[in-house]
């Protein structure tokens, strides 16, 4: 969506062709060009004269003189760090930190929690079932696993997910669903966060399941070897 705005936005920003563009000037211009969305943040980047403008999980870069707009990844060639992805990881981390364990299907380790792994799942997803089989390995490593709904693979997936969330014991219901149980004995008519989870997944650009997001906001798609994920989680803490 934002890609279509590059040319008109660049033209509008050219009005502010002063050596240094103040943040409020950028905000004012972006509000005119994208009136239906308010920037979540506008901040300077390590690159001289370049500002990061963020809309949810969309990031644009605007030159300080108002002449140029850049879409894409900003990379520090000295450190090899992708600054755009680092910024997005922070956004994702904040998104998941705002969701309490009680709102999800949460599996906690018996001992100390050393990290958290959030997983968007679908009951009809075969790779999701493989990840669920790896659950003991994650828990043994001190990783708390939290499931969110993203039922897109089967016609009955939304109903099964609602039944899981409405169950007296969500973890047991999830375990059963991962074994192919349709949970027809559970009334799924309670209020669930399915719409919110779907909206969050779409905001993150998910196209399927499983999707894994670590506590630090790193995002991975598809089945991942548990040891590699565990090392990634513990290495970022």
From TrEMBL:
Q: Where is the signal peptide?
A: 1-22
Record's GO cellular component terms: periplasmic space
Gene3D superfamilies xref list: Disulphide bond isomerase, DsbC/G, N-terminal (3.10.450.70), Glutaredoxin (3.40.30.10)
Q: Where is the Thioredoxin-like fold domain?
A: 111-229
Superkingdom classification of source: Bacteria
Compartments reported by the entry: Periplasm
InterPro entries named among the record's database cross-references: DiS-bond_Isoase_DsbC/G, DiS-bond_isomerase_DsbC/G_N, DiS-bond_isomerase_DsbC/G_N_sf, Thiol:disulfide_interchange, Thioredoxin-like_fold, Thioredoxin-like_sf
Task: Give one Pfam hit by family name.
Answer: Thioredoxin_2
Disulfide bond listed as a keyword? yes
Q: Where is the Disulphide bond isomerase DsbC/G N-terminal domain?
A: 22-85
- Give the family, as the similarity comment puts it: Belongs to the thioredoxin family. DsbC subfamily.
**What does the UniProt record say this protein does?**
Required for disulfide bond formation in some periplasmic proteins. Acts by transferring its disulfide bond to other proteins and is reduced in the process.
The molecule here is called Thiol:disulfide interchange protein
Q: Which organism is it from?
A: Thioalkalivibrio versutus
